[in-house]
Amino acid sequence: MSSLDPETTKIPLQHFLKHLTNNGVPVSKAIAISGQIYKTHSTPADLRSLSNLTLNTLGVKDAGDRKLVLSAFRKAGFTPKKVSLKRVREDSVADPRAPSSSSTPTQSGNAPSIGAVERIITPPRRKRTRVKNEFLPEGPSDEVEGAAVGNLEFNEILDEKVLSSKHVVINRAPVMTAWAAVVAEHLNFKREEALSIASVYTEMNAISRGAAIGKYDKSQDRSMAVSKDGPQPYVELMGRRIPLYRTQHEQWRALSKNSPVPPITAFSYISRSFRQTTSAVMGALKLLAESYSPEDLNKQGYALYCEFRPNSEEWGKRAELSCSTILSLRKKNTATGPESEPDAFSINPRRQS
């Protein structure tokens, strides 16, 4: 095969993680499993050949995890090539195990011209066959910071007349993730940094609430706490201290279970949750954030979230989120913006510009 054959081209780690997290594998589990399988199985052809036995050999010992991973890659389109019955009959004497060379491979590449959000929310092609995986006995490397789908653009709608009629029925978690990303970006973090921070911020809040209502052990909540005077760099975001990691490319990534969280995780979560309303909701949140100074936004951000979040008290229940409600919370008669206080956030040790 040609070296340019997409079937033998290595899949970037951030896209590999996206295939897992977009199809039902929890973020922390996806990162851990990627560390076991990515290095030796990093092409579409490798993924198509992956099996339950191979995963077990590579160190994925939990049967439920193996099933979850195989299912995720099946949903992502990495299915074994089909062999026509006619070809099987013709070749069975010579080599009954040989696959048909004329079978059509599943297309696993991204369309070259569609936007980032569309790329995320467009359902992948699915085939009814067994799925496969990839291998990497190394933790997430600097690929964690690579430019992800469509440069992570939401294409925010900022026209208030258009936004006033937009709403979506959704649960609270993706709303919190979207808002945390907007707030972090307003505090002068780059988009990639803000999305990573938003993932961990939402995770910390979910664990705290889950521990309070008995869904999680309280030790999980305590394990994510960051000491104010300790050596771990962190940022204060809306009442939470988010642990940070400095990459070789001089960018910040938030840490979850001591692993840096890639920005594609939050980007995919937001895009798939809000779907066609993503641009509208992100635009409304941006307009709300820009009406506050960075310092005031960081202090009042969670209270603002409580005002516009879906009105659902039950865990995971959906309710309406209205862009008009978000816009109504904007601060009146202010002229401050993200450039008025470029260092409103505080990192320990201090972030270097």
From TrEMBL:
<feature type="region of interest" description="Disordered">
    <location>
        <begin position="86"/>
        <end position="119"/>
    </location>
</feature>
<feature type="region of interest" description="Disordered">
    <location>
        <begin position="331"/>
        <end position="353"/>
    </location>
</feature>
<protein>
    <submittedName>
        <fullName>Uncharacterized protein</fullName>
    </submittedName>
</protein>
<feature type="compositionally biased region" description="Polar residues">
    <location>
        <begin position="99"/>
        <end position="111"/>
    </location>
</feature>
